[in-house]
Design brief:
By secondary structure, the protein is of the alpha/beta class. About 25% of the residues lie in helices and about 25% in strands.
Length: about 475
């Protein structure tokens, strides 16, 4: 094993002028990026940042993200990414939880008693040779509100080190290029980007997701690996066909999609367009107890599955904790088979069962072959008239309509049925009326799953990582009880 820092030094010695990161036309070579990171490390060290500290990284998608990560790792600290758009109250809460010694991406003095480094800051050239070489005990500590909405840190159980002899991860190939349109403060985009960068791939980062911009980047930089979430996939397929098909995507070897359930119709569109051999799906939590991966060809034989589980790592239970047989929907429990923990929470406690089982709140079932099929999170399930209704199924049907940009389905209390289904749609009502939408859904859903009411909005209901907080949407629409 060698440290991430040693790996980056080795890559720089091998090809100092090779492009490391490109974003919005700005690019840094391996040598330039490493130097900028070391300069920031010296600056932070002079201000008191030390080994085992947390360094909060609150920058938008940019080269600054990677500079901050180098600086943290060079000091043996842990980078702790958050959204650059958090309101001050949320920012303060996370920084207090992390007890960060420095915050990168905020104006000087804006966070009391912390070292503050503004976005775009470039430390003066400095000699970092006096800094001790130490390995960060945790290579990352992203945040998650999960189903509770309360922030927590998910501190990695892995140090900032890798095996240089190991095969490249995530189907990456030496000399390749990752195109990353996702926000780096989310775990998936950060993991893919860091793994690509640490393995010598050129990382092409979009400032924020743009359907046309993603295709342009693949063509211009000969992207070999693409990271997607279903929200992005839909926006790309909704481009005019002549535009979408005009880009040369022949360099693309792998399309990864994850982070939210992918509607079957949408996945089929991508398979038909790019070929099943290029489409891969991964299911895992940031906690990384276990993971499943399914290829496009496997998926065609197991439609709707997120992959075959590793024996002994996934089980399904009813609400009493009793294990369910194949084919029955229940709560998904996962566990790691390795000896050391894959993560630790700061600010939360895991939901556990005896035997090392943990739940992230997902619902699902296993088939007889061990393939996992997901429902919704337990907290988002709607009980209406005695039936369990999963919002993702209804959202998938709604989003088939080309006039719908995004949507979210929630339950409203009802004296008769317990709950009734309410759909919030990002759409122009002049393009699709409520009556037409009900007719459209009536052809795709059993009658009791068709929403009782609809609400039209003119803003995106999912962020660039495909995440939607249904509990918050529901709370905003219900009177205080």
């Amino acid at each position: 094993m060698i440290s991430f820092i040693q790996r980056l030094e080795d890559l720089t010695a091998e090809a100092p002028l090779a492009p490391a990161i490109t974003c919005a036309g700005d690019s840094m070579s391996r040598a330039e990026l490493l130097k900028a990171g070391y300069n920031l490390a010296v600056h932070l060290h002079n201000q008191g940042v030390r080994e085992d500290d947390m360094v909060t990284v609150a920058v938008p998608n940019s080269i600054d993200f990677f500079i901050a990560y180098i600086a943290a790792w060079r000091l043996g600290a842990t980078p702790q990414p958050i959204s650059s758009r958090l309101p001050q109250r949320e920012l303060d809460a996370i920084i207090d939880l992390a007890n960060s010694s420095a915050v990168v991406g905020v104006e000087e003095g804006s966070v009391a008693n912390r070292v503050c480094v503004p976005t775009g800051f470039r430390a003066l050239d400095a000699d970092a040779s006096h800094l001790p070489y130490v390995v960060s005990k945790a290579w990352k500590a992203p945040t998650s509100g999960g189903s509770t909405g309360r922030p927590k840190l998910i501190v990695s159980g892995d140090p900032a080190a890798l095996d240089p002899e190991a095969p490249l991860p995530l189907l990456m190939q030496k000399g390749g290029c990752l195109v990353m349109p996702g926000p780096l403060y989310h775990n998936g985009p950060a993991v893919w980007s860091c793994q690509a960068w640490l393995n010598g791939l050129h990382v092409v980062l979009l400032p924020r997701f743009d359907a046309t911009g993603t295709l342009e980047a693949i063509q211009k930089y000969k992207g070999t690996v693409l990271y997607m979430v279903p929200t992005m996939m839909k926006r790309i397929t909704r481009l005019p066909e002549e535009e979408r098909l005009s880009y040369d995507l022949s360099s693309l070897q792998v399309v990864w999609h994850l982070a939210e359930p992918c509607p079957e119709w949408l996945k089929q569109e991508w398979i038909d367009w790019l070929g099943a051999e290029r489409i891969f799906e991964l299911y895992a939590g940031t906690e990384a107890q276990t993971a499943t991966v399914i290829t496009g060809h496997e998926w065609l034989a197991h439609r709707g599955s997120v992959g075959k589980t590793i024996p002994g790592t996934v089980k399904i239970t009813n609400e009493d904790g009793a294990e369910l047989p194949a084919g029955e929907m229940g709560e998904v429990w996962m566990r790691s088979l390795r000896e050391t923990p894959t993560y630790k929470y700061v600010g939360a406690t895991a939901r556990t069962l005896e035997g090392g089982w943990e739940s992230l709140g997902d619902m699902g079932y296993l088939d007889a072959e061990g393939y996992l099929y997901l429902g919704d999170r337990a907290a988002d399930m709607i009980l209406s008239g005695g039936a369990n209704i999963y919002p993702a199924e209804i959202e998938s049907a709604i989003q088939e309509h080309p006039a719908i940009k995004s949507c979210a389905v929630i339950g409203f209390p009802d004296e008769d049925k317990g709950n009734v289904i309410h759909a919030i749609v990002e759409a122009d009502p002049s393009e699709i009326s409520e009556a037409d939408l009900k007719t459209f859904l009536g052809e795709r859903l059993v009658i009791y799953k068709v929403p009782r009411t609809f609400e039209y909005v003119d803003f995106a209901l999912r962020d660039d990582a495909g995440k939607v907080r249904r509990s918050a949407l529901r709370a905003e629409r219900l009177p205080i009880q």
